Amino acid sequence: MRITDLGKSFGPVPALNGVSLSVRSGQLTGLVGSDGAGKTTLIRIVAGLLPADRGEVAFPSGSAGGRPPIGYLSQGFSLYGDLTIEENMRFFSELHGLRRYEKRSTELLELVGLAPFRRRRAGRLSGGMKKKLALACALVHRPELLLLDEPTTGVDPLSRREFWGILARLQQDGFAVLLSTPYFDEAERCTEVVLMHAGEVLHRGTPEAVMGSLEGVMLEVVCNPVRGARTALTSERGIDEIQLYGDRLHVLSRSVEIGELRETIQRCMNAAGVELIAMQEVSPGIENVFISRMKEAG
Fold first, then answer.
1. Which parts of 112-206 fold into alpha helices (H)?
2. How far apart are CA 298 and CA 197, in angstroms?
């Protein structure tokens, strides 16, 4: 699937502006960004639920009706709470015109770890189990493209880890997956990362390429008070960017060596009366790149 120059507005508010990307079989493409970035709008357009104002969503030739079978998992729980797991699977199988679905249903429930609970009502499931059931229902008709809109939002850490284990197996089986996530640690698990903000693509590439795109050296500085330290460093020569993470700062320089950057930070901390607890060199992560690109975009 290839998306080219996609645009969409809701009244005067642009939701997407010139978005281009591609998703191939066996590839897991992650849309990463905060609320309002345009991730859900993009996924809904690909799913055929929203029309685009401009641009193109092109699928491989040979797809029935120009669009391959698509599995779609929305942010909210959209299954039937008064039906059991098994009954939900039967309903969606029949909705897709599948007559012999028992074997496929059993395979999918075993894949997502819900086979022992197949007679439990969906409304009584935990958040993580609901997401797994929704994924199983989205896979019942063997889609070629899987669209997942923030599939792990609101679930516990263990369920998140289990869900990503399932996605890894689907990727190995050759599924093309396009998902959105607000979690930067999840982005590192993707084949390709697409950083989005205010309806535009800030940067895209493999996780390694994205993290390696931030030039310069970076020091992580643990200090107290941290906001006082940021104020003291803001106007210093050789310091190009300061990012705040709780009780620490990530300080980036594109113009000086690591030794000079250490000395500058130490001198500023002493002059401002800030306690310097620890300082170490770190490699930029996807979140660092996202914040930096967002600042550049204004």
1. 127-139, 157-172, 184-187
2. 10
pTM of the prediction? Answer: 0.91
Domains of the chain: 2-211 (3.40.50.300), 215-297 (3.30.70.100)
- 220 within 8 A of 280, measured Cβ to Cβ: yes
E strands present in the chain? 2-10, 13-22, 28-32, 54-58, 70-73, 145-149, 176-181, 192-197, 200-205, 217-224, 241-245, 248-253, 275-281
Strands 192-197 and 176-181: unpaired
Q: Residues 6 or more apart from 10 whose CB is under 8 A from it?
A: none
Neighbours of 158 (CB within 10 A): 9
* Average pLDDT score, the chain: 94
Structure tokens, 254: 């594109």
Neighbour tally for 143: CB within 10 Å: 17
Amino acid identity of 199?
A: G
Q: What is the pLDDT of residues 40-51, one digit of tens each?
A: 999 999 999 999
Report, as an integer, the average pLDDT of 95-113: 92
pLDDT tens digits for range 65-100:
578 899 999 988 889 999 999 999 999 999 999 888
